[in-house]
Amino acid sequence: GSSLEKCDFETDLCQALQEVNLHPGWIRRNGRSGAGPPYSDRSGNDTTYFLSLSSEMKSSSATLRTNVFLPTDKEHVCQITFHYWISQSGALMVGLQKHSEDAFEIIWHDSREMQNQWKANTITINSTENFEV
To answer: What are the residue boundaries of the MAM domain, all occurrences included (predicted)?
Structure first.
């Protein structure tokens, strides 16, 4: 069966993201926080929450890690849909780390400058072993 998990950061981090895996630099905020754009979520609501890089992190990077997913097969596919916003000249990358490998492999990235709009993307992951994203 398919287990569809939705996460909107309204009350906490998602189940897929663990507190210990929230790298310093990520903050949960909304459009009213005064931390700069975006000033609303993807549907134009300024009171709903999203994750954002704190302004002190402008020139460095920060990571979000999921907890461990089980291997995929024909019945159990892993598909992740996410909404994102790039302001200034940032880049967003999604990496896959299989448990037998030390390094993670970049499976998607977007780095166009000054988009200043919400975009959506869906990635499908196939892995014969346990993995993190």
So the answer is: 5-133
Residue 120's contacts (CB-CB under 8 Å, 6 or more residues apart) are: 42, 81, 82, 83, 84
pTM of the model: 0.83
Which tokens belong to 73? Answer: 């097969």
What does pLDDT average to in each consecutive run of 10 residues of the chain (133 residues)? 74 72 78 88 92 77 86 89 84 92 92 80 94 93
| Residues 53 and 88 both lie in one domain | no
In terms of domains, do 75 and 113 share one? yes
Sign of CA dihedral 118, 98, 65, 2: positive
Pair 79, 61 in one domain: no
Same domain flag for 75 and 123: yes
